[in-house]
Amino acid sequence: MSSTGELLQKLQEGGGDEALRGLYALDGSDASLEKGRERAVRVVRAFEAEFGARPQAALFSGPGRTEIGGNHTDHQHGRVLCGSVDLDMLACAAPNGTDLVRIRSEGYPALEVDLRDLKVREEEKNSSPALVRGVAARLVELGCRPAGFDAYVTSTVLSGSGLSSSAAYEILVATIVDCFFGGGTLDPVERAKVGQYAENVYFGKPCGLMDQMGSSVGGAVAIDFADPAAPVVKKVEYDFTRSGHALCIVDTGSCHADLTDDYADITREMGAVAARFGEKFLRDVDEGAFRAALPQLREECGDRAVLRAMHFFEEDRRAEQEAEALEQGDFDAFLALVDQSGLSSALNLQNTWSAAAPQQQAIPVALAVGRELLGGSGAIRVHGGGFAGTIQAFVPNGKLETFRRGMEELLGPGMCHILHIRPHGGCVVLK
Length: 431
Hints:
By secondary structure, the protein is of the alpha+beta class. It contains 14 helices and twelve strands. 45% of the residues lie in helices and 19% in strands.
């Protein structure tokens, strides 16, 4: 492991370029590599300014993730396709010889967690210290002996973008602890489960495993939640840089506040349909039996519940087909499936706008304008939970600037973010 001074020297002399190119220069440009290198140098220098020079230190990355397929399928034990992106949390960290974890995240107050007390704290719920304590607690259960470390963190993961900044943070912390105190032996799937545990038990959010898996594994990841306690995880082998398309996440400027009921209604209504067949989750319902019972289900559960169940069966199947298309190198088939996913979310799932605020339909407007800009090429869909927030588009490289400009004329400067599916999940960048 290098000192902070040696890290700086390696970065400035190009010793970290290979790793940085695989994380931040997926467009192949020297400009992107230089930007990534400058950011890494800045983080190491910020660490030294905050904590002083250290004889042992390393650089770590925890990426954001994007949902590619499987919109609202995971809570029904369905299948999803997700991927890590080249927006991340980058940290310089070093052991400090104490039992204290001290983290300074750019733009936020410094935090301190005493590892001698790893009990759940109610007053820490919904906070970063809860995630740190939860990650450490779970790693102790797995046989690791975490100790104190200092870290300086900077993030490009967009808040409220559906890219899951909390998962990126969990994976970042787990990677740091595993590197310093666990011998780097924790595999990406187990690391994702550690993050989920921290978020469920310590942070207080009953999330599934998709976010953490997308951040931890890297590239495109297919997950089958038939058994949520032991999901089947498969890394999909496909090089998105060869697709001729860029991934755009477009912020519609709409707010997620007060949408809890909208999200809960999806789960409740899908569950109500499942209950008519004596099941808790739609994944356990025979689709043929569901189709045969449509007249009765409309009367008993309501039309919206029926449409949302139809979305589940189709979307669950689509997520698997998307992964297969990528593995076969058939990007056109993949794009067609992504587009179908978007149409199903809008028409059947109905999560592009809230019935409680019908005058606010930023996502449908963005999708409509985006489709016009794509002109029958690429693919476009709602991204994540829906009702507000972001949309996702795969845009041909030749139309990228036109698409970006058109979206930002509609929504404002800086609202269209051009990303890449990066092949690496949470990782040690340089040590």
